[in-house]
Amino acid sequence: MDEPQVVKIIVVGESYAGKTSLLQQYCYNEFDHNHSATIGCDFTLKWITKNGTKLKLQIWDVAGQERFQNLSKMFIRQAKGCLIMCDITNKKSLEAALSWRNVVKDIADEVPIFLIQNKTDLLQGEREEYQTEEYLTQFAQQHNFTRSYQISVKLNEKVDLIFYELVEAMIEKGVIKLEDSVIKSSFVIKNDNNDRNKAKKKECC
Ligand SMILES: Nc1nc2c(ncn2[C@@H]2O[C@H](COP(=O)(O)OP(=O)(O)OP(=O)(O)O)[C@@H](O)[C@H]2O)c(=O)[nH]1
Ligand SMILES: [Mg+2]
């Protein structure tokens, strides 16, 4: 049987932004309050169907800690789309998103890059300027992000949406083509299945 097209997506951003949590929520509908810093990188798989074509999303969770930054660049290669995450309660993590955008643009210039401000559930009362949707939208436009979103991984708010729209943006930009659904990637995982333990590679670097 033909392999579905493999679509590599990278998730980057400052440590503690919620990257691993995003993948856990999107792929397994789980949320963990504990932070166990990602070492190097990790990836999970998710099968989706888009306009009748099956796609295998290979979603790479890249460590945010600075000591892994050089290593992280290796994982960005051949990405078709990118989510750059920050924490809405931490302005510094929004600024760090710019450094990540530069790193991604250097390696994968043509791919859609979404700016994701996570943890909206933690906001109470009045928002600081940088926490408003208007500010984020303007910031994203000014710094050439394809789109921006405010989400809560914890509440599962807009989690499916950002992946759906990222795939749409990849199609719009021509970095993936649905009619070429049988393109064989050089990195097809042989023993993939729905078994989480098998699909998930730990400390793959
Ligand atoms: N309240 C709240 N907490 C969140 C949310 N998303 C993630 N967290 C918490 O934030 C902390 C960090 O999340 P991780 O997903 O481990 O962060 P990370 O970006 O993968 O961090 P590194 O692996 O170090 O790069 C954890 O304690 C999560 O439970 C959210 O939407 N709301
Ligand atoms: Mg992590």
UniProtKB/TrEMBL annotation:
Biological processes annotated in GO: vesicle-mediated transport
InterPro entries from the UniProt entry: P-loop_NTPase, Rab, Small_GTP-bd, Small_GTPase
SUPFAM superfamilies the UniProt entry points to: P-loop containing nucleoside triphosphate hydrolases
SMART domains, sorted: RAB (SM00175), RAN (SM00176), RAS (SM00173), RHO (SM00174)
Gene Ontology MF: a single term: GTP binding
Highest taxon in the source lineage: Eukaryota
UniProt KW keywords: GTP-binding, Nucleotide-binding
Entry-linked Pfam families: Ras
Cited PANTHER family: RAS-RELATED PROTEIN RAB
Name of the protein: Uncharacterized protein
